[in-house]
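In this supplementary section we document a worked example of the pipeline. Step one takes a protein sequence of length 234 as its only input; no multiple sequence alignment statistics are reported here. Step two produces a three-dimensional model, which step three serialises into structure tokens for compact storage. The input and output of this example are shown verbatim.
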Amino acid sequence: MKKSVVIAAAAFALAGAQAHAAVVSDCCDWSSGWTFSSYGFGVGTATATVEGSGGNPGARLNITTHTPGAPDTAFGTAVLDSVSTPAPTSGAAFTLTLDVLSGAGAFGQGQGIQLLVEQGGSVYAMGVGITGFPLSSFTTLNFNGNFNAGSFAKISGGGPATPSFDGSTTTSYGFAAGNNQSGDLTQYYDNFQLTFNSGAPPASIVPVPAVSPWTLPFLGLLIAAVVFLRRRPS
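The serialised model returned by step three reads:
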């Protein structure tokens, strides 16, 4: 199945103005444009590996974590760093969508999911929820949140401690999946999609307040009064 990477822009009517949305998505392959890595604490380790079949459809991403004890935490990471957009504005809403399937050793709450953003070579993570268990067939899950810099922690790179959501900084996106004290646990992922508000409406599009039918006659009387007062002899 051929890989499809899409960045789309759409305009939605909202309260008489326009709200612009962006969609970053990847279907089916995982083999081009992605960078896979991991991070962890204690003796926790993780791998993110593309498998050529078993996806929904096509290839799938296998994220396996090894976290034997209470302090051990590990996340496998995937960043679509070949695709970028201007950063969303601070507070903008997003929805991260993933197709998820439970794998070997999965139990309990499945894996925790983080949204990743990459800016200037640094990667930042924000927890957005858990997958749950069991997922005996690929299940589409949605994770919602807002782009607030203080909610992200830097996991790699030498940049600032938090990302910038200024509407202009070049930004790439991805996700991480991980566990704590869960032994060896695998889950599978496909069809990454991130939808977010890409910024404020254009400055030229400003709703004009409705005018009451009594407003214009009142303004006319007010202007006439001002003119009369200015013409009175001192």
